[in-house]
Specification:
It contains seven helices and 13 strands. It is an alpha/beta fold and 273 residues long. The chain has a single domain, classed as Purple Acid Phosphatase, chain A, domain 2 (4-Layer Sandwich), CATH 3.60.21.10.
Length: 273
């Protein structure tokens, strides 16, 4: 399938910048690393399922993602990175049943179409809209809200972010997940320079992961920090190939990540950092 030039150029350009240890991998090179990359941890992130969106086959898109996830071996946990539903609050309990049926540990992030209030969110998911945790006493994960009941695009809670990054400052790596890009480098991003500056202050923030932009699936850089997108697996617009992202960390702190097509697991782009 022919991909849009913008998406190709986005990844190609990032590989030419002096950003430190960074390699853009072909699908063949990524698979070849299976013999050498001693991945200690494996995370899957998928965004923009838009469960309940009218005139879409949202049940099939979620079923297809489930099948793709089941084919991934050794997954530690999944992050559903926003737009779990499409505006209508009653679908939130329904999509939870779908996620529960995957029978793997997972966490959820709030997107602009997840239009329920913080109390409802906590009652359904058992977690706050802003949260952080340490996985296996080894690396930190920070999940950040970026919207409200009205669906406005918001900058992250900077106070919470700073608190968690400081709390996790001694860890080898930190992964940050936030649905909406905190920079206006995409059509649907929002300019939040204080967020980008805060991320840059911590050398152990390995990468930040976004959803929201259904037609963006590559990598961008700011202050020598990588920001990844995962396309979408549901909804009515964007790339013609529903996708999800695999993230792996090895014992040395090296990360490799690949965007995969839901339908067949084909690697669409991959990077080693």
């Amino acid at each position: 399938m022919k991909r849009r030039p913008f998406l190709k150029n986005l990844t190609a350009l990032s590989g030419t910048l002096a950003m430190g240890s960074f390699t853009s991998l072909s699908a063949k090179a990524y698979r070849k690393l299976d013999d050498d990359f001693a991945g200690q941890y494996k995370i899957i992130t998928a965004s923009d399922g838009h469960y309940g969106q009218p005139d879409t086959d949202y049940e099939s898109s979620h079923s297809n993602l489930k099948k793709a996830i089941w084919k991934e071996k050794g997954t530690d946990f999944i992050v559903f990175n926003g737009d779990l539903i499409h505006d209508e609050p009653r679908f939130m309990t329904e999509v939870k049943k779908v996620y529960d049926s995957i029978k793997m540990p997972y966490y959820v992030n709030k997107g602009n179409h997840d239009r329920i209030d913080p109390m409802q969110w906590r009652a359904i998911w058992g977690q706050d809209q802003d949260m952080g945790f340490i996985h296996d006493a080894n690396f930190g994960v920070v999940l950040l809200n970026c919207s409200n009941v009205e669906g406005d695009y918001l900058c992250a809670n900077l106070e919470f972010l700073k608190m968690k990054l400081y709390q996790y400052r001694e860890l080898e790596n930190i992964l940050v997940f936030i649905h909406i890009s905190q920079n206006d480098w995409t059509k649907h991003g929002i300019a939040c320079d204080d967020f980008l500056a805060t991320i840059s202050e911590y050398s152990n923030v390995k990468a930040t992961f976004h959803g929201h932009d259904h037609d963006v699936d590559g990598i961008m850089w700011n202050r020598k920090k990588p920001y990844f997108w995962s396309g979408h697996f549901g909804g009515s617009w964007g790339n013609p190939f529903p996708s999800y992202r695999v993230i792996e960390l090895d014992e040395s702190g090296t990360m490799r990540t690949a965007l995969k097509r839901v339908s067949d697991g084909e690697i669409l782009n991959a990077h080693l950092i």
